[in-house]
Structures are given as C-alpha cells and as structure tokens.
Amino acid sequence: MRKWISLLCPLIMIFILTSFRFQPASNVEVPDALKVNGPTEVLFPKNKTTFKQVMAVPPFLGSSYIGFKEALAFKESQGDYFTINTLGYLGKYQFGIGTLQLMGVYNATRFLKDPVLQEKVFHTNIARNKWILRRDIPRFVGQRINGVVITESGILAAAHLAGAGNVKRFLRSYGEFDVNDDYGTNINSYMKKFSGYDVSHVSPKRNAKI
Length: 210
What we know:
mainly alpha, Lysozyme, two-stranded antiparallel ribbon, elongated, Peptidoglycan-binding protein LysM, Lysozyme-like_dom_sf
C-alpha cells in the first residue's frame, strides 16, 4: 500500500500543477503611457552622467539663501568645487588668492580639495561684504539703477564679482561707474541676475575670518 502511495503522490502533484491555466504575456494590456513607440537612448554607459549635470538645476531651492549661493556657484563654476579657471580663480565660488588671504586661508591646495572649507569661506565673505556695505544696503535697496531694482542679494552678488569697494562706487554714482571682470561680466548684470534672494539671516561681520 505504501508503495502505491509513493508512486501516486508525484503523479497527483503533476496533475494538479498542469491543471492550472496561465495566460500568456502577450495577452496582458500595457497602458499607453508605458508603451515605447520608438528607439530610446540609454544614458549609461553610452552617456555618462557627471556631478555637474546632476547638480546643475536645483529647482526646489527657490529664493532662499541656499538658492542664492547655488545659483551664484553655477554662474561662477557650474557648481564644481575642484575647478581652476584660466585666471587662477579657485573652486565652486571662484575665489582669488588675495580674497582667501583676507579671510585667513593661505593654502590654496587645501582650499581646492575641501568643499566644507569652500562653503565656510563663501559665507564668511558674504558677512564681510555685508559689513563693508552696511550703510549702502539700506540706502539703495528698492531704488532703480540702469533699469534694475536694487536688492540686497544683488548687491552682495555684485560684491562677490567685483569687490565691495567697486559696488559702493557703482551705487553712489547711480550706475555711472561700472566695471567688467576679465570675461566681460559687469556689476549691473549681477545686480539684475541675482536680485530677490533672501540673504537676511547673514549677519554683517567686520574683518570676518575663518
């Protein structure tokens, strides 16, 4: 009896499994939104995604302070911490050696390799420029110069580009004095491009250093 049971059990299991009817995959209806109607490029490995491409457009930052510094960084270096431009300016925010030394940074190699230090230097420089321009910011914010409404963030971005002293002269001459950097970008264009960001929480600091 046991011998018959041991022979019948496998046959019963095979019968049960084969009794199920499976629908072929071709009968499954694919939603139109998921259908591919033409050849699709594969991003990797044919086209490698770089850090710059991933960080290029942070859409969620808006007019915050982080939005301000990321927008400025993208204009300066496309957000690349490790770049040196043709004039020797360094890092994500393109600082010159002289400006770094003013803030107590004397090792350019260390600066270039240290993203945390670069972020600290940027914030320190904003605080330093805000102190230098502490009288001009409340005086000129809201006024219109060369068709551009002056804002605090525009003033500080322009100071990053051309130095706080040149921005003072620009404002006090009502735009008659303007300077270009070596790539042709002027104070007025930075005033316009970086207007309207909230940089209010950065406190002005005299002789700010790291």
